[in-house]
Design goal:
- By secondary structure, the chain is of the alpha/beta class.
- It has a single domain, classed as Rossmann fold (3-Layer(aba) Sandwich).
- Helix content is 32%, strand content 22%.
- The strands form two sheets. It has an eleven-stranded mixed beta sheet. Strands 3-4 form a two-stranded antiparallel ribbon.
- Helix 4 (224-248) packs parallel to helix 5 and helix 5 packs parallel to helix 7.
- It is globular, with a radius of gyration of 21 Å.
Amino acid sequence: MKPSIRWTIVVLVLVTIGITWLLWTKRDQQPIPAKGPIATQPTAPKPEPSPAPVTPKADKPKAKPAPRPMAKTLSKASTQPTYALVEVLFGTDRQQLGGENWNEYFGIREDVFRYGICKVSIPARHERGRLERPFSLLIFEFPEDPAKHIMLRDIAMHQQDAFFASLRARLEKSSRNQALLFVHGFNNSFADAARRTAQLAYDLDFKGVPIFYSWPSFGSVEGYGADTETIKLATAKLGAFLDQILKDTQANELFLIAHSMGNEALTKAFIDVVAKRPDARRRVKELVLVAPDIDTRVFARDIGPALAAAGAGVTLYAASDDVALLSAKSIRAGFPRAGDISDGVVILKGIETVDATGADTSLIGHAYFVTRDLYYLINNGFRAEHRYLTTVKGKEGQYWKLTKE
């Protein structure tokens, strides 16, 4: 049999399986609320926050993990809402394409920096740590369902002054003037970044203001090479955005989280901002580096020590089963990445490294966002030795490993 015929048969079989799966899941599907203005959609109550654990002492057991948010069981006759809405603020230098499809509202690179607010729906049946999306196969993707999927529902653009006025007002309503700034990685669209930011804020039960910076990634695996150049240009834009947040707001506790290639921009931008603004040392509470796509030697020699010297807490999540970073290593002439510990764990003074191997069960193992551990880090300020982690002592020093939930 010719290879082309064989692949055609494989695709047809997979499409048939997908259609069968869709029909099966649609049997007992709940009715979707009628479409209308986003402001009129019902909002599901968020799970009750867990009481803050007592800070453990040396002679007491470690803190227990944060309880998993409970999914609501919706009967056919239920009048309960099928999703919750989360508002997230954003800054981006992507081209504004407009249109009615929110998932394609922004394109790629543009010199203009834009501001706005998104509304993202989280299904009531959401499972903590997951980013529920429709089943897709090659060029086929099944429709979004707000009862099942995290969806970008609305984008409102704002002028700079109006944006920061809104941010200040939201900060005043938060008990501790907290903000969380997320920077996505390569192969991410604007909509991907919006959904991930909302999911993180929801799962962490974050009481402050969630914000994200969407740099103009091409949003495809094939665009990796172009993204390596784009992220260099994004560093200055992100630095200016971070500096502006510190300058124009009263945010006293700022948490910075980056994923994959986004770590290159965030780490360098933070180092630059700290050099210009001494108050950033006090106001930025934590940098969270998830699967950093940064040259290990560059990180160990230059970036890591500079971050540790800046005064904020630094947590690095890495894994040995991250196929995306293994591929990045191959593309970049075999230079290992800081988020890939298959050849050794990055251990530096002032940085807490956590082995998250196995946390992501997808095929590529790159999208792990360990919300249980982040819950304690961000909400309680617990360092690694006081969280639900296993201590590992090696020749190079000490690091930690996630325990199974």
